[in-house]
Amino acid sequence: MRRRRALWFWVFVGPFALGLALFTYVPLLWSVGLSFFDAHNTVTPTHFVGLDNYTAMLGDDAFVDSLKTFLVFTAFIVPTTYVVSLSLALMANRVRWARAFFRSVFFLPAACSYVVAALIWKMSLFNGVRFGLANTVLGWFGTDPLPWLASTDPPWYWLVIVTVRLWLQAGFYMILFLAGLQRIDPALYEAAAVDGARPGWTVLRHITLPQLRATSVAVLLLLVINAFQAFDEFYNLLSDSRGYPPYARPPLVYLYYTALGQGQNLGLGSAGAVILALVIAVVTLGQARWLKLGRTDADG
Amino acid sequence: MTMRRRTLLAGGTAGVASGLIAACGSNTGRGGDGGGSGVALSQWYHQYGEPGTEQAVQRYAGAYKKADVSVQWRPGNYDQQTAAALLTDSGPDVFEVNGPTLDQIQGGQVVDLTELLDGVKDDFNPAVLTPKTYDGKVWAVPQTIDMQMLYYRKSLLKDAGVEPPTTLDALVDAARKLTSSKVKGLFLGNDGGAGVLGGTPLYAAGLQLVTADGTVGFDDPAAARTLGKLHQLYADKSLLLGAPADWSDPSALLQGLTAMQWSGLWALPQIQKELGDDTGVLPFPKDGAAGRPTVPVGAYGAAVSARSKHKDAAKDYVKWLWVDHTDYQEDFALSYGFHIPARISLAKKATKLRTGPAADAVRFATEHGYAQPLLWTPAAQTAYQDALSRIIKSGAHPESELRTVVRKVSAELDRVKKNRGKNQAKKTS
Fold it and tell me: Which of A205, B33, B171, B392 is a plausible cystine mate for B192, CB 3.0–4.6 Å?
């Protein structure tokens, strides 16, 4: 009986485990191996270079700049998404009528592809000519058209990048917050009301936010990891057939050009990928520790 | 007999698994020793914008009787797609390449095609054949020549009292005068020209990207002076930025968003159709006493993958299509979009290239054309392009930016020279 169970376990789990090993773990280990070789235009290199690719990558201004770009992006997108999605959740939770409709409306953008949304933002809303939507609105106030994605001083491109991601992901995190809100015991609010607390900021600060602590920690972790993995909207908003501007180039875009672009420097790209993975791991662990992920009040 | 649910599930799972395994080994686009008229060859092209081009290349392939050629028309980042495909066995046998790059040649990813040009090599335009030649061998057969130039609307320049600019200073001045609240003076692409101009301003200053003896060709104060003028265009707000279509598409000029636009020869038929005689063309204007007017030229070429199982058949096909069948080359260059045939004899007799802006373009390509040298690697290009972007848009100091680029490009040149040494040592051992 036990043997039969094991057999069926592997029949159902085996194909997926095999796929995971073949398409995730083998490439991952292969990439780590490649990072110690001179691997121009080959995935089976022979020339071992030790840590040369790592030192080259860490000494590469463009890669270091890409990490700084990520930090700026994270500084914009994480708090903004947190605040917006929480606000949407509070509104959607409070609304008395057409509740399902409002939840759906806020959540729907999450179903849209990042590529499609980026192209809509780039070509319709924030193009740099006078008939772009944003520039049309500016024109009503007598302002000249702004080159949203090409302007580095001031860096208007951040507005475009942040708003598109905000629009795409706020609905998803709103759902997480809604789930958290619905788990809060109504008795807490009733007790607060009996004690004279007026609904609003006081209740939000002393009851809602502490009760949402576990959800908030999960949301913040996901937001930071997602920000590190930013690629689609950056690439589609800012690249053209001739390349990509050096500003607003996140690490994954840079590694894409290094390893998979015409340069095909797979050793250097792999070293960059390993460095980036380590940075993400360190930041995530640091953040989890700082937010005391997994600890209960009893743990102190 | 009734089939038990578990038996059915097990059978289904096995079926799916075997299907997946079979799928992994099929439909590579390359095929094996196919039936029909001979071996099966897979040929890749990047997606051309001109209607009819895809049908034309399929017609050429269909007319070849010694092999079954399947054409793949590939949209998207074609150069990246082919670069990645060359690492695997599922790539093409014959493919169009905007190169090949030096690393692809040194890495043994493409086949030597020198013998295909026996007797006709001198008829291929040297400007585009040279970047496909390394160690005296030809690694791709040029198909058609593309070039870029400056288009302008004669009427707008006349109304503003501006002469067609022949110097970079005059271009900066003209762009400023032509700029109004509705129309910008010049469109060099949505990135301000960093991508499409590339080395063109350096050649216009009398410099080059890489010298004939393989050293950095722009380690000169003139480079910083010229690139600084491109920032002036940006600072004057004379550049159109953020157009819905980029520089390769003439829409910005045709929609009246700009008075002058940098674009390719391929855009000429559309521009002439819409603007008629209101169209003028210019090379990128010279800068400084040693400067010269400049236009970049380039050519996609047909190459054979070193991983092809049918290299000889693939070479035969390339020779048949792009060397022997001059009628196909002429048709491909001139019947759909607008390109210059890579064969000098064909370019000379093409009637479409003898008058008006087309004739000017051919003259620019002949007299002022430069092609990106083979030693200009993608890493060198990225470093230079990043610096150019910072100079144009952020007003970065050209001297210090160029110093960094010179250092990086020198290191790249050292690397590829070292690889050449390694390859030669391998051959002699």
Answer: B392
C-alpha B298/C-alpha A103 separation (Å) is 54
What pLDDT is recorded for position A299?
52
By the 8 A CB rule, do B67 and B313 touch? Answer: yes
Q: Calculate mean pLDDT across residues B353-357.
A: 90
Tell me which of A123, A254, A264, A270 to substitute to probe the interface with B (most B C-beta atoms closer than 10 Å). A264
- The amino acid sitting at A93 is N
Closest among B100, B46, B41 to B317, alpha carbons compared: B41
pLDDT tens for residues A153-203?
899 999 999 999 999 999 999 999 999 999 999 999 899 889 888 778 888
How many CA within 13 A on the CB side of residue B174?
26
Instruction: Report strand pairing: B279-282 vs B141-153.
Output: antiparallel
Report which secondary-structure segment, H or E, holds B327.
helix B326-334
Tell me what the mean pLDDT of segment A51-56 comes to: 96
Classify residue B182 by its DSSP letter: S
Which residues lie closer than 8 Å to A239 by C-beta, 6 or more apart? Answer: A253
Chain B, nearest residue to A261 by Cα: B80
Name the residue in chain A with its Cα closest to that of B244: A123
- Contact present, B246 and B187 (Cβ < 8 Å): no
CA–CA dist B194, B199 (Å, integer): 9
Express each pLDDT in B283-302 by its tens digit.
999 999 999 999 999 999 99
* Rounded Cα distance, B205 and B169, in Å: 12
Which DSSP symbol is given to B101? Answer: -
For residue B385, list chain A residues with Cβ-Cβ distance below 8 A.
242-243
Of B321, B313, B314, B308, whose CA–CA distance to B28 is shortest? Answer: B308
Q: Tokens 């376990």 sit at which residue?
A: A9
Whether the link from the prior residue into A155 is cis, omega within 30° of 0, is no
Distance from CA of A127 to the nearest CA of B (A): 5
Contacts of A240 in chain B (CB under 8 A): 189-191, 195, 246
Q: Give the separation between CA A122 and CA A102, rounded to whole angstroms.
A: 27
Exposed/middle/buried for residue A120 (C-beta within 10 Å: 0-12, 13-18, 19+): middle
Calculate the CA B122 to chain-centre distance.
22
pTM: 0.85
Q: What is the mean pLDDT of residues B316-345?
A: 93
User: CA-to-CA distance for B310 and A66, rounded, in angstroms?
Assistant: 43
> Is the separation of the CB atoms in B246 and B189 below 8 Å?
yes
Single-letter amino acid code for the residue at A262: Q
Q: Do A41 and B84 touch (CB under 8 A)?
A: no
- What does DSSP say about strands B137-138 and B141-153: parallel, antiparallel, or unpaired? unpaired
Model confidence at A296: pLDDT above 80: no
Task: Report pLDDT for B68.
Answer: 96
Distance CA B371, CA B102 (A): 14
What ipTM was estimated for this complex? 0.83
